[in-house]
Design a protein that fits this description.
- The chain is an alpha/beta fold.
- The chain folds into two domains: about 120 residues, Rossmann fold; about 100 residues, LytTr DNA-binding domain (OB fold (Dihydrolipoamide Acetyltransferase, E2P)), CATH 2.40.50.
- The strands form four sheets. It has a five-stranded parallel sheet. A five-stranded antiparallel sheet has the order 10-9-8-12-11.
- The chain starts with 5 loop residues before the first strand and ends with a helix.
- About 30% of the residues are buried.
- About 5% of the residues have low confidence.
């Protein structure tokens, strides 16, 4: 069976920081260290050589070439970039470059693992599916696959009550379970059948087929209540009239 681990490139001019990140990668079953390098110029040469890199763990302040400058020079296809720095001041510039995550040192393993899960989810989303002559698992257009912990779980759209945003991840709620997935609400909304799912709040998307009642801009969806945000009310009630 082919190795499905994601290849990580670590670039940091501080040896202690590199060793810490190497240890975190080694602790994570889905990862492997492809290279651990002390400066961004060596990193750029490595990445331009054609070596596969899925995730780049990158310091910002380094001599000769900064981490942000390296991101601007990355060849396509770019790896998922996770910046690891002692300073918060670069966050605006970093996210303008569409990096995957921004970690402030000292980094604990839980925060590192969350960033890796987000990078892995994004990596799966852009990886072309292999061509197969096997019949599809399901012909239903109401299914969605989401990564929950370390497994891909099939969910039926029709069973989803609502989806709630929590920071960089979301909670998909069904009548029997709540699934935490490392996708933003926006990323999930792009994969949903919009005729059935409507954004009703900055933090909620609801399955309109599962709404039991509405009172005072509060939706009863199964055993749960979901608020309708003030700025979403006009569009929401208009969508109900069009159903």
């Amino acid at each position: 069976m082919p190795d499905a681990r994601l290849r990580c490139v670590i670039i940091d001019d501080n040896e202690i920081n590199r060793l810490m990140l190497e240890h975190f990668v080694e602790m994570t079953e889905s990862l492997e260290v492809a290279a651990s390098l002390p400066d961004a110029i060596q990193g750029l040469n490595f990445l331009r050589s054609g070596e596969q890199a899925d995730i780049l763990l990158l310091d910002i302040e380094m001599p000769h070439l900064s981490g942000l400058d390296l991101v601007r020079l990355l060849p396509e296809p770019q790896p998922e970039v996770i910046l690891v720095t002692t300073h918060r001041d670069f966050a605006v510039d970093a996210f303008a470059l569409k990096v995957t995550d921004y970690l402030v040192k000292p980094v604990d393993y839980a925060r590192f693992s969350q960033a890796i899960a987000l990078a892995a989810e994004r990596r799966v989303a852009i990886t072309p599916s292999p061509v197969s002559t096997e019949p599809p698992i399901s012909k239903s257009n109401t299914d969605i696959f989401v990564k929950v912990n370390n497994r891909m779980l099939r969910l039926d759209f029709n069973e989803v009550l609502y989806i709630e945003a929590l920071s960089t991840y979301s909670v998909i709620v069904t009548p029997t379970q709540k699934h935490i997935v490392y996708l933003t609400l926006k990323a999930i909304s792009e994969r949903l059948p919009l005729a059935h799912f409507v954004r009703v709040h900055r933090s909620y998307i609801v399955n309109t087929q599962r709404i039991d009642s509405i009172e005072n801009n509060m939706l009863q969806v199964g055993p749960y209540e979901v608020p309708v945000g003030k700025s979403y009310q006009d569009d929401f009630y208009r969508s109900l009239r069009n159903l």
